[in-house]
Amino acid sequence: MSVGPVIEITGDGSHTLFLPELEEHYHSVNGAIQESKHVFIEAGLRHLKRDVVHIFEVGFGTGLNAFLSLIESDASREIHYTTIEAYPLPLSIIKQLNYADKYSQEQQDLFYKLHEVEWGTEQWITPGFYLTKIQTDLNQLDFSVLKSFDIIYFDAFAPDKQAEMWSQQIFDQMYNITNEQGMLVTYCAKGVVRRMMQQSGYKTERLPGPPGKREMLRATKL
Q: Each residue of 76-91: pLDDT tens digit?
């Protein structure tokens, strides 16, 4: 019998989930929020200077990356956020997570709204943030239904846990849906992953990683 996800406190006080069957955490145990901000917001979203941004996320999970991106959106910056998730988490788990605790009640409500809106079609969340959730596995995704994207948040479980998510074919597909001057960011800095990105056509950079991790990767389509 499979055991459900276990909520744990990370180094910055924010929650993560531990999956016993994979022996894997959803985020860095050194700090879930600070990892997501460092890898996806600072190195990704804030690095890209565009008024309208199309984001594709591999792994909706707890909704943390989507929520932090929502916080970054405003009347002057419109975000269209597409995310995939094969195994959505139950709302009973989501309501125990503390990611929105330090924000206003309105923003806390928006965190729950990200999880509650319908799957499969673009949903209006705020005047500057639109969300499309697709319930599928990355290897079963029909890429022909996707548009192209300015940023890809590649947040799959680690290669030693889900090797099928980190293949040359996957990175070729990621490259094909990346806009010119767009980018892919990920917490993983393994040499084999970087070389696959380069073979796909990306220019790669090793950047300082979040606390507890020496490096991360940013790949740009020139």
A: 789 999 999 999 999 9
We report the CATH number of the domain holding residue 149 as 3.40.50.150
Cα separation values, 212 from 28, 64, 157, 206, 207, Å = 8, 19, 17, 15, 14
Residue 108 lies in a domain: yes
Q: Hey, which bits of 70-188 come out as E strands? A: 78-84, 123-126, 129-134, 149-154, 178-186
Q: At what angle do helices 168-176 and 191-200 cross, to 10 degrees?
A: 50
The angle formed by the CA atoms of residues 142, 144 and 147, to the nearest 5 degrees, is 115
Domain range for 215:
31-220
Residues of the chain where predicted confidence (pLDDT) is lower than 70? 1-2, 75
Element (H, E) at 207: strand 203-208
**pLDDT single digits (tens) 177-188:** 999 999 999 999
Residues pairing with 93 in the sheet: none
194 is a domain residue: yes
pLDDT tens figures, 8-20: 999 999 999 999 9
Alpha-helical regions (H) of the chain: 32-36, 64-72, 91-94, 105-116, 168-176, 191-200
pLDDT score of 145: 87
- Overall residue count recorded for the chain in this entry: 222
DSSP at 214: S
Cα–Cα distance between 189 and 133 in angstroms, integer?
27
- How much is the pLDDT for 1? 52
What pTM, to 2 d.p., does this model score?
0.96
How far are the Cα atoms of 34, 94, 166 from residue 97, in angstroms, in the given order?
15, 5, 28
Q: Is 105 helix (H, G, I), strand (E, B) or coil?
A: helix
